[in-house]
Structures are given as structure tokens and as C-alpha cells.
Input
Amino acid sequence: MSDSVSSAVEKVNVVSGVRVTGELHIGNYWGAVRNWLELQDKYQCFFGIMDWHGLTTAYKRSDEILPLMREMYAEFLAWGVDPEKATLFIQSHVPEHLELFMIFANITPMGWLERVPTWKDAEEEAKASDTHNLGRFAYPVLQAADIAIYNGGLVPVGHDQIAHLELSREIVRRFNHIYKAKIREPKPLLTQTPTLVGLDGRKMSKSYNNTILLTEKDEKTLKKKVNMMLTDPQRARRENPGNPEICPVYSFHKLYSSADEQEWVVSGCTTAGIGCGDCKAKLAFNMNAKTEIPRQKKAELMSKPDDLNRQIKQNCEKARHYAQKTLETVRHHMKWL
Ligand code: TRP
Ligand code: SF4
Output
């Protein structure tokens, strides 16, 4: 973790979010949740389940996406997001985001958005997938509002989000300039977001349908998925030695297994001392061990829907309360009270 995390002297809020497009997978753990758990001990944190951002591309699947959010909510709690330390909210339950979005939309020149690489590079794909829409175009403006509404000073991001965050800074800066305000400019907190290999050897991604879910429903399903992982193709036969460095299975051992176990894989693989089956069995065991408690907690949370709903409501109210105060300040600066 970088310096800025360890020096919590500067009291800033952390804002982060995950766009809702499908079930959470282990990439979300290594890319987001793991960092959240660390950050919630050091900062006032606002973590969001971003459903409006999800709708920009998944609007035709709204019926599937929306129910997923409760499950995601339970999952975040189960994996250790602590409402005592961090405010976990659902974006659409805090309509204040949209008011700030609209204000920001008016001060954001079109050219700024046209230059955003995630838009420029995806335009053809967006047209083909019927998502060349205003919501998707304005995505970074809503993100800027998500952050500013909680006075976000630090935003944990991977490299792919740097351009969005730069735009958030520019929008906030322009707001401050026009209205002589002092909203905090968010800074990126570069976090480690390892790219995981999916079951088909491509990047792990919901859109490729090659993921291991964050909380697979049981050990058997998890094992089955681990068994599907590709291995070093040189090891077509048990007696062929392999190279762990090019093997997806080993890349997961690096995340889930102890140093001794990793050494066991390296020496066993390179001397053909172990088979890929042994190697995968060990990995599945370790992955499951890490999942077992959250899996139980998630099941428990899901089994009491009223309690979960109450919790969601309470935490979203907390987020709203903060957001409303920010909006008051914003309107005050705009002389629009
Ligand atoms: N764009 C982010 C992503 O795809 C999700 C997101 C939406 C976000 N609003 C945010 C992240 C605000 C941080 C802060 O991962
Ligand atoms: Fe990959 Fe393990 Fe097989 Fe080596 S033994 S090729 S690291 S699965």
C-alpha cells in the first residue's frame, strides 16, 4: 500500500465504488474489497454499489441487475466491510448524487468527455452493443458527483480509472473556480489491482463469463471451477515438467497460498514431482478456506431479508444525510438557496 494510506494525519474521506453489472467475482476482491478493508481502519470511508453506473451498459437487464444489489450488499458485509467504520450505500438510494451530477453536467464542456479514453476507445463497441447513450457518455460526470458529494479526498483506483479521476478533479476545480468554492479535489490512491486470469485464459471478466465468483455457493462448485483452469500446456502429460510462471494456476497460488506451498508448487512442477491435479487441489482447498466464513455470513444475512433491508436503509440514510449537507454548501456557493 502506498504512503498516503499509512499517513492518515491528513483527515480526508475516501470514496470508492463498484459498478453493478453482475455478480461479484474474485477480481473484485483483489481489485477493491481487499483495499476497502484496509482503508476503513484509517479513513472515513464511503463505499458505493453503483447501480446507475451499471445501467449505462446494462439497462436492458435492469430486472436482473437490481435484485443483485441486495446480494452484493450482503456480500460486502460478509467479507468484512464494517458499517461502524464505513458507510456502505447503494447509489440510487441516495438521489442527491443526481442533483450534483446535473450541476456538474452543466459546467463540464463536451470536449472534456469526448477526450476520455474509455469513451473514445469504446465508441464502436458502444454503438454495436446499443450503449452509445448519453448516460454512458456522461459516466465520468456522475462519478465526479459520487466523489464530491462525500467530499472525497482520496479515491482508490487501478490504472484504468486514472483518466476518470483526472476528469473528476477538473470538474471540481472548475466548479470551485466558477463559484468561488472550496470543494476538495479528489486524488487517486493508486492501489494494487492485479489482473486475474479467467478460466478460459483471457482476463477474468464478467463479460467473458470466465469468472470465479467471490462467494461460490459451495466448495464443490469452487473446486470444479479451479479444475477448469488452464495450465502450462507443456505439461500435457504428468511426467513433463512445467513452468509455473506461465501457468494461471500458479498465479492464483501466489494470492492464496503460503510461501512454503508456493515453493512446493515450483519445485514440484519444474521436476514433474507433482501433477496438475495435486496442484489444483491444493489451490482449491486454500481458496475455499478463505471463503468459508464469508460464505456462512452471507447466507445468514440473506436468510433474514428484513434485517438486511433495515441495515441497507439505515446506512443509505447516513449517506444521504452527508450528501444533503454537501448539497447545501454547493447551493450556497451557487447563490441558489
Ligand atoms: N467507475 C468505477 C469502476 O468502474 C466505479 C465508480 C463509480 C466509482 N463511481 C465511483 C469508483 C466513485 C470510485 C468513486 O470501477
Ligand atoms: Fe500449473 Fe501447477 Fe500444473 Fe505446474 S503443476 S503446470 S503450476 S497447475
In short: Residues 3-197+305-334 form a domain with the Rossmann fold fold (CATH 3.40.50.620). The pocket of iron/sulfur cluster (ligand 2) is lined by residues 231-232, 235, 242, 244, 247, 249-250, 265, 269, 274, 276, 279-280 (CB under 6 Å).
